[in-house]
Amino acid sequence: YNKTTGATGFQVSYIYKNKAYTKNFNADKTATKTISGLKEGSYTVKVRAYAKADGKTVYSAWTTAKSITVK
């Protein structure tokens, strides 16, 4: 993903065998994250940034979904 100025974190949504999962990550200096424990197969993945301010969370739009293969 491309870093978003002002983001306090980001969400990664992925679909495996028609079941959706979401992981939240805090924003830091790296644009690479690893999700461990994935099973072998094909996944559809998308990402969005979020910012927390005044007790509210504001989300960006989801990126275009991409298909990846875990071997």
Describe the structure.
The protein has 71 residues and is an all-beta fold. Strands 1, 2, 3, 4 and 5 form a 5-stranded antiparallel β-sheet that branches. The mean pLDDT is 89.
Write a compact overview of the structure shown:
This protein is mainly beta and 71 residues long. It contains no helices and five strands.
Q: For this entry, what is the oligomeric state of its chains? A: single chain
> Which structural class should the secondary elements be placed in?
mainly beta
N- to C-terminal separation?
Answer: 21 Å
Please state roughly what percent of the residues sit in beta strands, choosing from under 5%, 5-15%, 15-25%, 25-35%, 35-45% or over 45%. over 45%
The SSE order reads: EEEEE
User: What is the rounded Rg?
Assistant: 13 Å
Based on Cα principal axes, name the global outline.
elongated
Number of helices: 0
Count the beta strands.
5
Largest sheet: 5 strands, antiparallel
pLDDT averaged over residues: 89
